[in-house]
Fold this protein.
Amino acid sequence: MIFQDAAAYAASGFAPKVCVIGAGPAGITIARRLAAAGIPVALLEAGSNEWTEESQDAYKGVTVGDPYFDLDATRLRYFGGSSNHWAGWCRILESYDFEPKTHIRNSGWPIRRSDIEPHFDETYDILGLSPFRPDVPITDTFRLFQVIKSEPVRFGEKYAAELGASKTIAVVLNTEVTELSGDGRSVTGGKLWSRGQAAGEIHAPYFVVATGGLENSRLLLWSNERSNGGVVPNAAALGRYWMEHPMYITGDALITNQAFELDHEGEAFFMPSPEAIARLELPNFHVQLETAPYRGVKAMIAGMACYAAPETTEWLSHKLGQRLQCTARVHMDWEQLPREHNRVALSTTERDAAGVPRIELHWKKDESDRRVMLEGMRLFGEEFARKDLGRIHISEWVRNGEDYPDGMEIAGNHHMGGTRMSDDPKLGVVDRDCKVHGMSNLFVGGSSVFATSGQCTPTTTIVTLALRLGEHLSRTISNS
């Protein structure tokens, strides 16, 4: 069933056992898993079937610290959530991403990758993937790994017919939960806003917040403020340890011995070994070689750099005003450390149309980000040369510690942390089952529960964790 607003839903008399707030990849996946177990679910979506300026306005906010994307552009607020602009890049966190690391403070998850592996096959089915190929060792410390660039799944489009025909899932569009009410032990209800006005409350035995890697923190922060700590009674970590994947072009490569496979777009992805990052005390990262980043005349010259006489290439580059170094561009993405000061906060002055404070995102890169760039590139360059694969040129701005350049990607639009998973309520908001510490019926889905971010895109892991949470809730409800 799909209802266009809260009034139509209320008139139906539908009685959910679980209220899932947010109809993006996590929310839809959790709702489908619960419905498969025969559990009635209300799935609330703040937006409509399509993008509207009015809905998107609720995502406006400010960033304090380093330059970042506009907060109303880095995610989408309509049915299917940010899957509507997802690029389709897939990879699951590595096994050692879940492990604590002595050189990274507050690292480690309370679960291991083996805890989510039973859900891999269903994740592949949802995202249209084949199992990932095994990694291929390329040097002593780097291995080639597969990033699957799938046909991006738009969750609202893919599952609209199924959800519309369901008698167990009630999708409620144009309806947001502005705040949850709680007594410090359980959530007692959620206040609704629909079609530009207050629309009563929703009640259910269980609630799942799955509104995204920024909005999960926002909703819980505001709910906790309004309820005097009744929604997140252990709130020391709430909104904190927020993470992104910084990503920049950090150099160029001359490939003289292509002893590795390129994907269909002429790219290759390399990841360091756990032993290497432990020895250098670095977070995880990957190096991406883009062998075809240039077009036209630049492409011709780039090709000559590998196959023609170097002096010819240098002459052509000079004559045409090109500053080409090599045959490939080096792109680096890395794991940002979980820092308490990187956080989602509430504005004290700005509110959206529903009266909810807008987000004030505090985000700043630090010396650990500088260090992983430089040391990671040095390690890759040394290994690349040692195996006689070619030579790596590190960009001057990286070598000299200059300002981050304008005009590059900045980050991956990957919003992680803020309601992180931990056994310790002082360091996390949810436990290993994604249940909010101290609350009996409140759960969180999505990348906000990531304890650390690894080096890969989060969507595949988000879906896998959502399946695990859906299964846990199904067992909990069935046994109650």
Notes: The radius of gyration is 23 Å. The CA atoms of residues 43 and 171 lie 5 Å apart.
